[in-house]
Fold this sequence. Notes:
The complex is a heterodimer.
Chain A: E1 3-7, E2 10-14, H1 17-24, H2 29-33, H3 41-52, H4 58-61, H5 71-78, H6 82-85, H7 93-101, H8 107-113, H9 119-126, H10 131-139, E3 145-146, E4 150-151, E5 158-161, H11 170-182, E6 189-192, H12 199-215, E7 222-224, H13 228-236, E8 244-247, H14 252-257, H15 262-274, E9 290-294, H16 298-301, H17 310-322, E10 328-332, H18 344-360, E11 365-368, H19 379-392, E12 396-399, E13 404-405, E14 410-411, H20 415-425, H21 431-437, H22 447-451
Parallel strand pairs in A: 5-6, 5-12, 6-7, 8-9, 9-10, 10-11, 11-12
Antiparallel strand pairs in A: 1-2, 3-4, 13-14
Helix pairs in contact in A: 1-3, 5-17, 7-9, 9-17, 9-18, 10-18, 10-19, 12-13, 13-15, 17-18, 18-19
Chain B: H1 7-11, H2 27-45, H3 50-59, E1 64-68, H4 74-79, H5 89-97, E2 106-112, H6 117-131, E3 139-140, E4 143-147, H7 154-160, E5 165-171, E6 182-188, E7 199-205, H8 212-229
Parallel strand pairs in B: 1-4, 2-3, 2-4, 2-5
Antiparallel strand pairs in B: 5-6, 6-7
Helix pairs in contact in B: 6-8
Amino acid sequence: MSYAHTIGSVRFTFPTLADLLAKATPARSGDQLAGIAATSAQQRIAAQLALADLPLTTFLHHPLVPYESDEVTRLIFDTHNPTAFAPIASFTVGQLRDWLLSDHATPARLTALAPGVTPEMAAAVSKLMRLQDLVLAARKISVVTRFRTTVGLPGRLSTRLQPNHPTDDPASIAATILDGLLLGSGDAVIGINPVSDNPATVNTLLRLIDHARQRFAIPTQSCVLAHLTTQMQAMDHGAPLDLLFQSIGGTQATNTSFGVSLDLIDQAHQQARSLNRVPPTPDNPCPNILYFETGQGSSLSANAHHNIDQQTLEARAYAVARHFSPMLVNTVVGFIGPEYLYDGKQILRAALEDHFCGKLLGLPMGCDICYTNHAEADNDDLDTILTLLGTAGVNYIMGVPGGDDIMLNYQSTSFHDALYLRTLLHLRPAPEFEAWLQSPHPHQLSLPNLLT
Amino acid sequence: MSPQPKLDQILSPTPNPTLLPTPSLSTATTLDFALRHAQARDAVHTTLALPSLLEALHARNLPTITVKSAAPDRATYLRQPNLGRTLSPTSAEALALSPLPPQPCLMSIVLADGLSALAIDRHAIPLLDALFPLLTAFTFAPIVIAEQARVAIGDPIGQTLHAALTLVLIGERPGLSSPDSLGAYLTWAPRPGRTDAERNCISNIRTQGLDYPTAAARIADLCTQARRLQLSGTAIKEMSPQTPAKTLL
Lengths: 452, 249
């Protein structure tokens, strides 16, 4: 089946659904690198016009990656909820955009809709949306998750305290944790990217966070972002693991390149749940445990993209995420480099697309607003993305001391950036963490007390 | 580290009363960040200081060949990584004409700009001075200086020169605290198509990072092991914990 649109006397044709989506995608270097991007501005708009008239049901009949050979496709099709889909079943992609921006799309209706939306539908409609549309629609959707803190409530902004260090030095990491806590950071998670991906390091760092948390009664959760299998080994050795981390992508081959499968994630999830770190209560019957990271371009980078545009593949990664009811999902939007997102404009668009698509699919979206030094971006771009995501209702952002991650060598949002956003938009930390900040506990914090 | 609260306050054993100060960073801190970002940005876009590099190499009686990758400029280089991994047609021809009889244990050393020409300008010569005395078991092809290059450009270079192994010294992706970090990548039996898993990497070679004698000893150890095992990559275990490659080259 092919797709077409005529502008004047020129007929633009798109031989496949994947090609239509790729050509309709606002310009970005990763799709150009893959050789699938629109080759003229008019071709792009022709594709968007064709996409606007496409019935949403098309996506239920034409998988982008074959059902037989890709477990992410199987997950998307097997878990699609026709009842939830019913209110929009007669819509085209363009009509879905108009509805999302209308008063008919109330927060309650959007929440109920999520299981009926496939990643491809979310990606398709986002390609027709301007930045203000992506902000406005996402703003209506609250996705609230809970471990020790409650993240994603309206009027709240949480942060991941990210105390990375080039040699995993516990004293330096503890000093950064202290710095962040004193600046009100760390209510989404205290999450460390380790240099050494081994169970002993994971165990050491988790114990460091756990000790601090218990000693000062900090309502937060720990995470060490090692490979899933490394965290499983650490749990075998008794590591006090709160949140379980994994990078995921939108095709089976991408996840294979990450060394994971749906089955493996499921096994690890059950193992982490069995630790019973936060016992279920009537208030919190099923604590969210998983922390996923994603980012446009990872499939192409792994040569696992099936000639699908990187934004659609990113939305497909969210299908993997939502299967596991995660506590946190983080699109690490500017980390991958300029061959996928060339400059501040492309990173900004990608951040808002990812946040909107994730929320529409029912995910607790956070964003690592960041850039590398070989991308055409600087702190002005970071501020723009930060401010827009704040207005869009992002669940959480990163907190990196001074905005400079000295281990991963990139720039992200600082503790102060989060304070800026909270001040500007009158956003508050997670309620449990806010209460802690007003308690006597923070006044007892000191480095020796954190380490001993 | 954030300027508020002060580090000495954090390190103090007495409890700290300072909570939630003003959200904005000071002018000095903001400009310091901007300066370090500017240094990293300039490092990405700086070109190799070829005259002084060649002079230093010739002063050591080291023959050289200068090549360019297939990426014509930095903007293309950044957008299309594959071009930085292949030689320009002119350079490929020139390299093929370099007469070299087959020799045992021939090593090809490549100095590549990568994402920081500054790293080569500052660290390549002192590192080579520390390295050559440790590599007496090897013979050497002329040193190849490669512009607009990524790590894998060592593969076609090594293959053309019939090298048993290539050592690519290359500027790593600059961080704010490290605009001039040098990486060393070793590949046994180089040829196009080698994967990153078939290479060994020593990262973070710079004044505030891994010093020259330590880096040279680690590289020499890897070269010796590669020669003994006739391979490189994950099968080789380093004498001390390997610095992970976070360079995205």
